[in-house]
Every structure is written in structure tokens, then in C-alpha cells.
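Standup notes
- DV: blocked on the single-chain target, sequence here:
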Amino acid sequence: MLNSAPLYMFDRLDEIKTDFVHFYFSTESREQVQKIVNMYENKSKPDFEYARGLYQGGCFIMLILASKSPRRKELLSLITNDFVIKSSNEDETRPENITPQKAVEYLSKIKAAPFSSDDDTVIGADTVVCAEGIILGKPKDDLDAFEMLKFLGGREHSVFTGVTIIGKGKSVTFSEETKVVFYPLSDAEIEEYVKTGESADKAGAYGIQGKGALLVKEIHGDYFNVVGLPVGRLAKELARFL
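- DV (later): unblocked, structure below
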């Protein structure tokens, strides 16, 4: 179970102890749960002794999303609402002569690594667009965005998102690919789209979840992967990881 538990559930720990370790708690929630456990400090009921032992043993895991992207925050909320956002200013330069799959996996590790600890679970992610063997990240400015979109117009391209999960001395990294086909785009159409401002912080200079959807003719694969996080795959990987 990946969503945080309502606090009232802790009134009946004997009924939920088998699922107890699967709940995620932010720092605030952990403090609330500790207070509840403390209420039974002088009682000998085995289930609460068990719960207190889990808490002190670090089984209450804080989930960290190592990303400033509001889109990834929204997508992770489909799995759980109980996580915190952290980000660093690590060098995100991709190594030369690297495949797009390896590039996003490498950068997802770079983003997650600064927050790795024995107590928490960290998720890092990175997305790139690749067409004709050329990797496209975020545009530097409007002119760069225009050139990217002109290059992608009328072509099929691939969107790769890499994800790394790190916690308790272990890690797993994976990537997903989604193929997208754009309609042919005139200069006027591209200029009009760039004026929306959507291009600024997005790989390939478009956002499929916004007005960028009007540029898309076909999509083959996970839509959410194009937005920035393959949530279906991530949910399954998290379940196995924890």
C-alpha cells in the first residue's frame, strides 16, 4: 500500500500490522505517529510494542522526490501524496558518446545521489528527446526552442525518461521509451507555440500535457513517460524495492 495511512487506523494496529511497514510518512506524519505510539508507552499490548520497534528501527521511510519539476510532483502524487521535494545544483552534463537510455539513467542517478541516506528513499528522474540520433534536452532560449521544434516537425522522435530509486544501501535504475510523431509544423505555428512559454523548461521544447498536445499526431507507449515520469512502471519498481 503506497498511500499514507489515516491516523485513525492506528487505533487498531492488531488488524493492520502486516501492512504497517508499507506506509510512507513525511517528517510531520512520523512525528504524529510517534505521539500515538507514545500514548501506549506504559502498555504491554504486543502490537504497539511491535509498532514502536518498527518506528525506532527506521521502518518509517520518508520518500524524497529529487526534482523541481511540478509535473513530476503531480505524477508522483498518483502513487502517494506523502513525499517531500528536494533538489540540488549538481552538474547535469551528459558524458559524450552515450545512448539516450544511458544518458537519462546516468542523470537520474546524479540527481538522486545527493540525498541518499540509510533512512529515506530517494527518487531521481531525467527526460530527454532523441531524433535522428540527436539528443535534445531543454532549450537555452526561445531561438533554441524554435530550432528544436522545427527539427522535430513532421518527424518521429523518442522520449526517454530514466529513473533511479536509492535507499537503505541499495538502488535500482531503469528507463522507458515512448515514440511520438509530430505533424509538419510551419514557422508561424512554431513561433506561436514558443510564445506560450511552455518550451522553456521542457526536453525537446514542448509539453505534451499543455498546448504542445496540438503538435502531436501519434504517440506509441506511456504518455506519462513523455510528461516526465513513467508512473505505472515506477509504482511497480517501488513495490519491489521496498
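- Follow-up: The beta strands are 62-65, 84-85, 120-131, 134-136, 156-167, 170-182, 216-220.
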